[in-house]
Design goal:
With 420 residues, the protein is an alpha+beta fold. The chain contains 14 helices and 13 strands.
């Protein structure tokens, strides 16, 4: 008994290890999707916007001063690094510094921080400028201290109403000095942004700005219609092959199975020409009609229907039922497990199809989720968090469908493997 117990523990441990290994890619994909910037092995949660250790020529490409073009980089007694110093020449003007951020998504920012020294009673503002040159600022606080001190600014996107928070090109820190500030200094150093982690902003950006909502709708509509078509038409053809006796039945069924060996790359050209002649290119028709009946679906349903007792059909015939009534009231209700397997297999196949929609569509509005994902990867080769967010969105429906119908799928596979 001890040996069996020990062997059982080792087997259980091995199964757990295999489960962890199999789920590791899914975990890595989801973990990367909630990273603000970087990747799984290089997580970026902080960004230095300005540190003033570079030469003035280089700094002019990374920043600009507000209120004056003159600034000085100097060292303070209690700091080892250089700081930015701006002399207030006119107390009636505003002074500050703007950091160039390129095209920055501020939804990822948790808070901003900087070291600042300004004349007492100066009003400090935080300003943003987006890529469309729209500017907006909000008041932060009144400076009440002397000397260089660290200031933390919790960033709340909802405070800004006019700028495009997802595409910010400048972050500005501005002061309105008091009237007696002539000749005083504004000193700024070490402007940083702290990014949110974990964050769902990548999912929101992909869903709204990259048109994945439209791609998901297209894929959902196409997959649903194709699944319903396969469940109906494949079952009807399979019923004829399984229950009806006619000349050439086996030869015709063999021809149906033979089409499964033809790669789609061979048939794509004649199908494309047919769709073009029908005027269906870049429409839902071209993505739905060629897949309403599949040879695999016919094969699966025929094998299952053949296992059903024929006495049900004979009893129904005696009661005066027609073939259509037998099919709809007897065969289809009894074929539930096989139809579940056919439905989930068809859904996954159509949902994950890239080759056919890529050839048959040419507009952004008709792309399916896999085509959109492929295009997103091509245009955003280094943006791993958003790429993984898009991949996670594309995979969620398949996982949901499997979790909902897993009992029917398992029962269908079990019953399909047992005769009699």
């Amino acid at each position: 008994m001890k040996k069996r117990t020990s062997g059982g523990r080792w087997l259980f441990t091995l199964l757990i290890l295999l489960l962890v290994i199999s789920l590791m890619p899914l975990f890595m994909m989801f973990f990367t999707s909630v990273i603000p910037q970087g990747d799984l092995f290089h997580l970026i949660t902080e960004r230095s916007l300005l540190d003033f250790e570079s030469s003035p020529i280089y700094l002019r490409t990374k920043m600009k001063t507000i209120g004056t073009r003159n600034f000085e980089l100097k060292e303070l007694q209690n700091r080892d690094n250089k700081v930015l110093s701006i002399t207030i020449e006119d107390p009636g003007k505003e002074y500050g510094v703007a950091a160039f951020t390129g095209d920055n998504d501020m939804n990822l920012v948790g808070h901003l921080s900087l070291y600042i020294s300004a004349p007492e009673n100066s009003q400090l503002y935080l300003g943003l400028k987006d890529i469309n040159d729209v500017e907006e600022r909000i008041p932060l606080q009144t400076i009440t201290h002397d000397g260089l001190k660290k200031l933390r600014v919790d960033f709340e996107p909802q405070q800004f109403e006019t700028v495009n928070i997802g595409h910010i090109s400048q972050i500005q820190f501005i002061i309105a000095p008091p009237e007696d500030a002539l000749g005083r200094e504004l000193i700024v150093d070490d402007i940083q942004s702290k990014l949110k982690f974990p964050t769902l902003s990548n999912f929101i950006t992909v869903w709204k700005e990259q048109d994945f909502a439209r791609y998901m709708f297209n894929s959902s509509l196409i997959s649903l219609v194709v699944v319903l078509g396969n469940l109906l038409f494949c079952s009807m053809v399979a019923y004829a092959f399984a229950r009806k006796q006619f000349r050439g039945r086996e030869i015709l069924f063999s021809l149906v199975l033979a089409t499964m060996m033809i790669p789609p790359q061979v048939t794509i050209i004649p199908v494309f020409i047919l769709m073009k002649n029908l005027g269906w290119i870049d429409t839902y028709m071209a993505l739905i009609f060629p897949f309403l009946v599949t040879p695999f679906g016919i094969f699966l349903m025929r094998q299952y229907i053949e296992q059903l007792p024929s006495e049900f059909d004979e009893a129904a015939y005696v009661d005066g039922a027609s073939d259509f009534q037998i099919f709809t009231r007897i065969i289809m209700p009894l074929s539930g497990p096989a139809m579940a397997v056919l439905g989930i297999n068809t859904f996954i196949t159509i949902w994950n199809d890239l080759f056919y929609p890529l050839v048959m569509t040419n507009s952004k509005s008709m792309r399916t989720v896999q085509v959109g994902l492929a295009m997103y990867q091509k245009l955003n080769q280094t943006d791993w968090p958003r790429m993984m967010s898009a991949s996670t969105i594309a995979g969620i429906p398949v996982i949901i469908i499997f979790l909902i119908f897993q009992k029917q799928i398992i029962s269908g596979l079990v019953e399909g493997g047992v005769k009699g």
